[in-house]
Specification:
Layout lengths: L6 H14 L4 H13 L3 H14 L4 H13 L3 H14 L4 H14 L2 H8 L2 H4 L23 E5 L5 H7 L2 H6 L4 E6 L4 H4 L6 E5 L9 E4 L3 H4 L18 H11 L4 E5 L21 H4 L4 E5 L33 H7 L4 E5 L2 H8 L4 E5 L13 E2 L2 E8 L7 H15 L6
Parallel strand pairs: 1-2, 1-4, 2-3, 5-6, 5-7, 7-8, 8-10
Antiparallel strand pairs: 9-10
Length: 412
């Protein structure tokens, strides 16, 4: 049931298991994982404690406890739990991988990137071009060499965020080939001169070195003080920008919104939010809400409050095999983008558009802890949940910020 993400049923099954056998440590530990996926971190921690009291010699029990502690933002304790797991089982992929996320969250990027390499074993991410034997670590000279950077291990947002490293690599070598998800090729062709952007499905055999895109921060020894944050590093097509400028017009303060992350690559669905959360933004005088949402979540447009209006972009908006070409052009004509942690937010940041991101209580590692800014994106502002699952205070803060920006009195 956990593999099917039927978390409620999984918890019920584990409850039955421990009712029959109260000393079943593995069931208590698995119950903790299921509770975490339901956003019940406090209960998950208690369940993991029961498991640890029964079998403190099991590495996965300490890893499970660490995960629950991380969800509660108790990061030093989480790291301590992962360390205990690693002491028991030095080859525990889950312990190293989850520790990396907590270390990155804490801002210790030097250690975090090193541990983050364990993701390759967690995701079974072998080198995607085995014909290119030499893996670049950042130490080997790239003078007069060709470097293949490949991106297919995680989501579109990750590729948009980290493709910036291709331009850094180009300063060191004669030729850079950036192999990305097929749908992103057209968008990322704007990344810079002398960077060849190709489909990940292409057969690339003439590179001297290869590296996974998300290993680039380690290769460049990235810290909080040297994050490559020059924006924009992507650009929209000029003709599309002009087309959408004519279609959108100049009326009002145009706010582009999305509300749901794609479930295809995202198990982390609780970073999505209900479209109705934007109702108080829609009520701000002069504001036009313009949907940038594609596919998932569109049904919510049919069930809006009577006084809430969201404009949709029909007639070919981002149709075809290429992703985000129209989205990028529309963004260039907007005054603000508001989104949860999605590829849309990353694209807006990469284009240097004013962007406000609504983050869940325990946000992804890339947003660090309790910051209202992002060192990755200078034009971005972060709004965080104060309580898990509660978006009301996030949107109250967004409304207040929007009214202040427009010079309007505070709302209700």
């Amino acid at each position: 049931l956990q593999d099917l993400k039927r978390w409620d049923e999984a918890v019920h099954s584990y409850d039955r298991a421990v009712a029959i056998r109260a000393d079943f440590a593995e069931a208590w530990s698995n119950r903790s994982n299921a509770l975490r996926n339901l956003g019940r971190a406090g209960e998950a921690l208690e369940s993991s404690k029961r498991a640890m009291a029964l079998r403190s010699d099991l590495a996965n029990v300490h890893t499970t406890r660490g995960n629950a502690l991380k969800d509660l933002k108790r990061i030093p304790e989480a790291i301590e739990s992962y360390d205990r797991a690693i002491k028991i089982d030095p080859e525990s992929v889950d312990a190293h991988w989850n520790k990396s996320l907590s270390v990155l969250l804490s801002g210790d990027l030097a250690e975090g990137w090193r541990l983050y390499e364990w993701r390759k074993r967690a995701f079974d991410a072998a080198n995607i071009h085995p014909g290119i034997q030499c893996v670049w670590s950042g130490r080997e000279s790239l003078d007069k060499r060709t470097l293949l950077i490949w991106a297919d291990e995680q989501g579109l947002g990750d590729t948009i965020q980290f493709c910036r490293y291709a331009a850094l690599a180009r300063q060191r070598c004669e030729r850079v080939i950036l192999a990305v998800q097929d749908r992103l090729v057209a968008l990322l062709c704007s990344i810079g001169e002398n960077i060849e952007v190709v489909k990940i499905s292409s057969a690339v055999r003439d590179a001297d070195f290869q590296i996974a895109l998300l290993s680039m921060p380690l290769a460049f020894q990235t810290t909080l003080h040297n994050i490559p944050a020059r924006v924009p590093y992507l650009a929209a097509e000029g003709a599309r920008v002009a087309l959408w400028r004519a279609r959108l017009g100049d009326d009002g303060f145009k706010v582009g919104i999305c509300w749901r992350a794609s479930p295809a690559r995202n198990a982390d669905t609780d970073k999505s939010l209900p479209l109705r959360s934007f109702a108080r933004i829609a009520a701000v005088p002069g504001v036009r809400l313009i949907s940038l949402q594609k596919h998932d979540g569109l049904a919510e447009l049919q069930n809006l409050p009577a006084d809430m209006r969201v404009e949709t972009l029909e007639d070919g908006f981002d149709d075809g095999d290429d992703a985000f070409l129209d989205t990028a052009a529309v963004m260039e004509n907007l005054d603000l983008v508001i989104a949860p942690d999605t590829a849309v937010a990353h694209l807006a940041g990469a284009l240097a558009r004013p962007t406000w991101v609504a983050l869940k209580f325990m946000a992804d590692w890339r947003w660090f802890l309790d910051r209202s800014d992002s060192p990755w994106y200078p034009t971005m502002k972060l709004f965080r949940q104060e309580r898990p699952g509660d978006w009301s205070e996030v949107f109250a803060a967004i409304e207040s910020g929007l009214r202040a920006r427009l010079g309007l009195p505070s709302g209700r």
